[in-house]
Amino acid sequence: MESVVQSDARKIDGLRQRIAGKSIPMEKYCARKANRFVTKKTLMFAHYEFMYFWNGFDIVANNLPVMQGILEDLENIWLMRKSGADADDRALYFFLKAACLRNLRQFTAAEFAIQEVLKLEVDLIDFAYLPPNAFYELALLRIADGLRDEAEPLLAKARSYKGFPLENKLHFRIHSAMENLGTRTPMV
C-alpha cells in the first residue's frame, strides 16, 4: 500500500502555478524532487540540497561548528546509504561535500570532491544542474586561493550550460561573483 508521503508527493506536480504561462522555477524544481521521490522511494540529502540552493551554506559559512556538523552528517548518511546510490546521488553527495569543505577552507579536498561531480556528469539523469554549479564552486575555490584569472573562465563555463533547473539562480550567483572580481558578465 502506498504511504501518505508518496501519495502526497504524487500530487505536487499538479499543484504548480503558472504565471504568464511560465512555471515558477522553484516549484518546478520541487516537483522534480517529488517525482524522484515517487520513483526512487527516497531522497538522499534533499534537506541540505535545498539549504544550499537557498544560500543556507553561505549563511552558516562562518559558523565552523555548524559547517563541520553538516559535513559529518553528510558523511554518516553516505556511509549508511551509498550502496544503493545512483550516479545522481553520488554527484549530489560530492557536490554538497565540496560546498562544506570550501566553507571550512579545505580547498584541496573540496576540489577533489568537485572533480568527482564532474566525472559523473555523463551519467546524470535527474541532477543535470550539478555540473554547472560545480564549476561555479570551483571558481569560488580559485577566488578564495587568490587565483582570480583562473576563476573567470570557470564562471564562464558554468554560465555556458543551458536548460537546467534553477539556471537563473546560478546566473545571479555567477553575476555576483564576476562583479566581485571587477569584471562584467558577458551578455551572450
From TrEMBL:
The lineage of its organism: Eukaryota, Metazoa, Ecdysozoa, Nematoda, Chromadorea. InterPro entries: IML2/TPR_39, TPR-like_helical_dom_sf. It comes from the Eukaryota. Transmembrane segments: none annotated. This is Tetratricopeptide repeat protein.
